[in-house]
Amino acid sequence: MNVKGAGSRKLLSDILAQAGHGVPLPKVLGPISIVFMGIGAIIGAGIFVLTGTAAALYAGPAVILSFVLAGIACAFVGLCYAELAALMPVSGSTYTYTYASLGQLVAWLVGWNLILEYSIGAAAVAVGWSGYFNGTLASIGLAIPPRLSTSTGQVVQLADGTTATAIANLPAAAIVALLTILLVRGTRESARLNNLMVTIKLVVIVAFIGFGIGHVSTANWQPFVPANTGTFGYFGWSGVLHGASVVFFTYIGFDAVSNCAQEARRPQRDMPIGILGALVISTILYILVAGVLVGVVPYPELNVAAPVGLAVDRMGIGWFSALIQLGALVGITTAILVLLYGQCRIFATMAHDGLLPPMFSRIHPRLNTPWMSQILIGVVVAAVAAVAPIETLSELVGVGTLFSFLMVCASVVRLRHLEPHAHRPFRVPAVPWVPMLGILSCLGLMVGLAPITWARLVVWIAIGLVIYFAYGRSRAVHRLTSRRHSKE
Questions:
Q1: How do residues 463-474 score in pLDDT, each as one tens digit?
Q2: Within 10 A of 23 (CB to CB), how many other CB atoms are there?
């Protein structure tokens, strides 16, 4: 196997120069829009579902500490993202950063894993959206036939009590299709809708915290760290760590924020504000929601599909349940929107570099969006969301995310060595210690993943290597060589 070119690295000067050529993406995003994009991606289904699951099964009331630990781990990674996004204000996220620091093959593997993370993540969230949407319809006396609102092949119960096999989850596919159309139409319009939806979501979450504080029973916080069951990771301090590894994945959306760089008005200033601002706000809200949730409902009762809704029912505020349902539906919608947006930018950047067919890097002359890339991703994600259950999808996301986060931290250290004099508008403090803490945090969480998850990662990487050596390597090397010769 010829690995020529696999270790070739993009120079930082080349990356910045390429961003100024071709059809530019319009610079329409300010710091507030970028913060809202981050919050939209981070605060999705997790705050309405995963908080209760982690409390009931692993950490008890100490799920509050789980969120603190996960937030600290993400802070190390977030600082690294902030430096690289300001240093390289271009699309491509972790893929671009590793191409500049660790070479072409590593960049391809990172990009290939990001395809898994974003696409499958968006499909999983879309399936969750479908569940909340069906619940909302049921609350007003409407219903979609279960055979058309459940993943393909699953057994569903019909209205007459008989059972049947589901055909497809059409609501999940429909929301992906609608958001894809919106994203193709333009980033400005997408950002405005996202800002509105995130505002609604934040109002609902703050209202839950405000109303819930008055209904908290401190007795539900006792014992704060329940005794371990005898199995590592199930309550006790090991349960707090296990809970942290579970809720860590509620933070993965801030990776998508770095894809806004090429459309930010002042990326060197706005990207660190966007990434770190979204992370800080989301962490504070997660901790407060977790505290109220385990204070209103005893933690063993929280392993339900809608734990926040259960807490509202215990408060006895009937009208607030509908508002919570709306907030959950809107919150999950924003997460799908940002994941589809981020995946498209990475996909288009990889196509521009020759690692994927160049047609997917084309910018629409009127809409100024990478429309072919966005449509392809929308079709694939909609199809997957229609047929696959959420349990299968969610298992595929985590390890690829942690791998990407680890590479971001490594890229900061490597680029400080390779490009020591480059202008860095934002600098990670205490390098290499902060990036190393980020790497160790990611490795610690990766070790705790199930063996089947690792098996799926190996299979996905194997497929990626075949595509790279059969298609991408020769084309990417040729394009890289051609650009360098043209400069000479």
A1: 999 999 998 888
A2: 11
